[in-house]
Amino acid sequence: MKARAVIVATMALTVGLSVGGCGKTISGSAQPAGGGGGSINTNFDKLLRECEVVKQDDIVKATGAQDASGSFNGAVCMWILEGTPGGDGMATLNWYEMGSLTNEKANNDKLGYATTNINVQGRRSLEIHRPNDPNSCGVESPAADTGVVGWWVNYLPGAHPDPCAAASKLVDLTLNLAR
Fold it and tell me: What is the b/e burial string over 86-104, where b = at least 16 CB atoms within 10 angstroms of the residue's CB?
């Protein structure tokens, strides 16, 4: 009998504390999502702005290509590099707003990629190489505000510019323009 009274008292106390937290009144009237005044941009025209952080002409100059054309915009931004010495190639920009170099290094280690610390604009950055692939290179750096920004440059096998120099230059341009 005593145990039952303790259980009932505990339940009553729990309900009382729970309901007490719900007793606050907020002034005003409820609005549907987006109904708080002003208009909502449903065109999503600024969604991929980061793909424009480096001009297409600068991508061409940094990679040694004759032309660059955007081929995919989404989680990453990609450009086909046309007319690079040795054949076409590809440049890829990634900007992870919640990323960190520590996380990038750990992921590269899991993939078996070789990672070297380098310096881009006074920031510790990572130069990344896939195993047995001298035709591609990635560079990751802390973004100007938050997260990490990185570029990968991939050339076809053969005589081509240094993919690490191109990726590093593109990261440098991104950090300059992001300020």
Answer: eeebbbbbbbbeebebeeb
Q: Which two tokens stand for residue 39?
A: 């208009």
pLDDT tens across 8-55, in order? 566 655 555 555 555 566 777 776 655 555 565 555 555 567 788 899
Match 């969604």 to its residue by tokens: 47
- Burial of 37 (C-beta count, 10 Å sphere; 0-12/13-18/19+): exposed
Copy the structure tokens of residue 44: 């999503």
Residue 110 falls in which region: left (phi positive, over 0), alpha (psi -120 to 50) or beta: alpha
Both tokens of 77, joined, read 């931004």
Torsion from C-alpha of 91, 95, 96, 98, nearest 10 degrees:
160
Q: Which residue ranges form the domains of the chain, and what is each CATH number?
A: 52-177 (3.40.1000)
Adjacent-strand bridge partners of 142: 148
pTM for this model (two decimals): 0.72
List strands edge to edge, sheet with 136-142.
Answer: 67-73, 77-82, 89-96, 148-155, 136-142, 123-129, 114-120
